[in-house]
## 1
Amino acid sequence: MTLNAALRIRPERPPDLSRIRELNRLAFGGIEEADIVDAIRSGGGAVLSLVAVAGDDLIVGHILFSPVTLVPPVPELRGLGLGPMAVLPSWQNRGIGTRLVEEGMRHCVDLAVDYVVVLGHPAYYPRFGFLPSVSFNLKSAYDAPPEAFMVRELREGSLREHSGVVHYRPEFGGG
């Protein structure tokens, strides 16, 4: 049986929370991202939180989507930020992150999300349809390299007439 066949992607459940925290700590080498995930969840901002489960119950990956806002505001647009996304170090480079992103994006389409942003590796996220934010006249509220802040429009043309600065939830700090 291949890893992809044995791997399940599902929404997080309450018994998963401590394991998700530990996964983020191990994947990022500290507790900052784990604290952000916990704070977003406790603040009601986790729109979509998925886990990758191997075998019977081993959580090997996690992805979170939370609301973002555009300044100046565009009330009719619904945007989400992808991240953090984490895979246990011993399970990396096996396609788990790919599965999490692909399944997460399918859920975002089902949730009628207009666009998703990510602040991430510019060589990784374009394979999922993400483009540099400058393609959409959007900037990050963070001091991030422009090529690392990317956008994927889920409703074609939804960002065509808009520009501005994208702000993540306050739990991310600084932006």
## 2
Amino acid sequence: MTIEILFPEICNLYGDSGNVLFIEKNFPNAQIIKTKLNEEPYFANNKVNFIYMGPMTEKNSIKVCQKLLPYKERIKKLLDEKVIFLFVGNAVDIMGEKIKTNDGNEIKGLDILELTSTNNLATRYNSLFLGSFSFESHPIVGYKSQSSEFKSSESPLFTVIKEKNNEKQEGVLKNNFFGTNLLGPILILNPYFTKYLFSLLGYKKKLYLEKELIEAYEERVKEYQNAEIKY
């Protein structure tokens, strides 16, 4: 089992490095490669089973786009081979055609997914999130804090139940690419979703601290479902 964490020194905002720590706890025997921005991605010339990338600053998203562009065809091939990807926060934007900025500029994306992002640094959208996932019966919970938003014709990852902007869909799901703006970190907040995701890697054990995670998750779901709880 080989797991690659892309650019953890800069793709680690909003506490979502917790996703990386949780992956490490649940796959102690896996080969976990933490690729720095100045290094060649391990996936470029090697077999990988799971690729993770977390949220980053808007300036760093430009650097990441430039870094990954030479590997566009390799990433497309891995996507076609159904390698598992989890891109969180604005990491999803990298996979689209372009990122538009509020000053009229455009950042060239990988153009792998049918997706266009708009980045407005003058505003930031914050909201709690409650949704559903078609491959698992338990609700999805999380947070959003973003200055960018994307529009996509790809299949959504989640269906929205409760969110400030009243959107109907959230994220992107294509083959085994899971892309979401949800923060939290998502793997810790959503143990049932995580069990499904890890099952695609052949994981059959209980999650690290599964009992405690499920207890906290159930309390959070009750809170989010409460009509008096605002976004």
